Amino acid sequence: MEHLKSGMSTLRQKQRSGSATTNMRLTVARINVLGHYVTFLVRASAISLVSPKGNCLILNFPTEELREICAKRSVATAKLGTAAALELAQKLADMEACENAAEFCELYPSLVSDVSGNEKSLNLSSGHQVNFRSGHPSYPNPPAKVTDWNNTTRLRIVSIETSDG
């Protein structure tokens, strides 16, 4: 166990100093086995610093208020309620875990609907809907009439609204 602790502190130091070429993410579990606590490494994955999130969707927001609602559970709970805040956090985590927008839409086909050719809506069971569109900083010129969701790797959360009826 001492070896594990010293190894973890070394990785943390490298992360802080920025001297490592990769960013190590570690998950450590501590469980009770027959009255004794056992600590062990559950997962370690290296993710390139060039692409800090790997092949995952990147979310962005038009306003600081919307970013706060999506990033902080306490803010979301105050604005949307406990159940909606929990569901929002779960769906946003699923969204970020997908490689592209089409993959997320395939994950929840009954919850994601088209608002227009360039915007979609995620319906939450709490009575809210999350509207999103492509969040890429550069768009084709002239703008496409329909977004290619298979190539969309950045999503802009446009709004969170109360669903109609």
Task: Describe the 3D structure.
It is a single chain. This protein is an alpha+beta fold and 165 residues long. The chain has two domains: 2-48, no CATH class; 58-162, 2-Layer Sandwich (YaeB-like fold), CATH 3.30.2310. 33% of the residues lie in helices and 33% in strands. The protein has helices spanning 2-17, 64-71, 73-80, 82-97, 101-107, and strands at 22-33, 36-48, 58-60, 112-116, 119-123, 128-134, 154-162. The strands form two sheets. The protein has a five-stranded mixed beta sheet with strand order 3-7-6-5-4, with no helix packed on it. The protein has a two-stranded antiparallel ribbon with strand order 1-2. A hairpin with a 2-residue loop joins strand 4 and strand 5. The radius of gyration is 20 Å and the shape is globular.
Cα-to-Cα separation, first versus last residue: 56 Å
Strand order of the largest sheet: 3-7-6-5-4
Structural class: alpha+beta
Order of secondary-structure elements? HEEEHHHHEEEE
Q: Approximately how much beta-strand content do the residues carry?
A: 25-35%
Cα-based radius of gyration, to the nearest Å: 20 Å
Summarize this structure briefly.
The chain has 165 residues and is α+β, with helices and mostly antiparallel strands. Helix content is 33%, strand content 33%.
Main attributes of the structure:
165 residues, alpha+beta, YaeB-like fold, 5 helices, globular, disordered N terminus
Note the topology.
Elements: H1 2-17, E1 22-33, E2 36-48, E3 58-60, H2 64-71, H3 73-80, H4 82-97, H5 101-107, E4 112-116, E5 119-123, E6 128-134, E7 154-162
